[in-house]
Fold this sequence. Notes:
By secondary structure, the protein is α/β, with parallel strands linked by helices. It is 38% helix and 17% strand. Strands 2-1-3-4-6-5-7 form a 7-stranded mixed β-sheet, with helices on both faces. The longest helix has 19 residues, at 181-199. The protein is globular. The termini are far apart. The relative contact order is 0.15.
Amino acid sequence: MAVIYQKSAYLNDVKRHYCPGCSHGIAHKIVGEVLEEMGLLEKTIMVAPVGCSGLLYDYSNTDGIHALHGRAPAVATGVKAVHPDKIVYAYQGDGDLISIGTGETVSAAARGENITVIFANNSIFGMTGGQMAGTTLVGEKTSTCRDGRNPQVDGYPVGVCEMLAPLQGAKYIARASLHDVPHILKAKQMIRTAFEYQLNNRGYSLVELLCACPTNLKMSPTDACRWVGEEMTKTFPLGVFKEE
Length: 244
């Protein structure tokens, strides 16, 4: 019988803890497919911090290590220093990467650490109760800004790609979306490019993935994906921000 589709060897056969419609599963799928297609599963070390993605090391067939909240770039830096021949990547949400770990994120990029960061941006603290994050959109309602994010009170959302791209150590910075299949395929290509940069010792690479969090958006999975494509992309435009 012809095989039409086969799950990536990157993923274990265990039950996931994600809510229905959560984009983290899609992100894991395409990261795993890229690593398998590139023949890198045996030489990859993944760093997962606190957040919805904090159990990724239980789902992944690669080596993995847990990091404190926001500290994944620092841990990944240390792992890469000890194992320069390995592919080292951090998988971080927006609450972790930009709300808690801004210092570690900017510092790793500025130093030009030869690591890759996969940044899942769903505009909210997903695991801890739906609080406002650094990427929460203006007007978006959360458990800590019930009338919507007000720039006069809460400030503006942070464009991570726009912030990191000017840094000399940042070599590949790109933003994709996971709201439909064509955009998922583009995201997969960006992830491949980011890992190629690391393979070739070219420095820091980051791919931001716009994700849906139906539970905290209080939407159906379909409506949440539509919201990502129609609303999140207005604040966070897609594309390659730096490639050198």
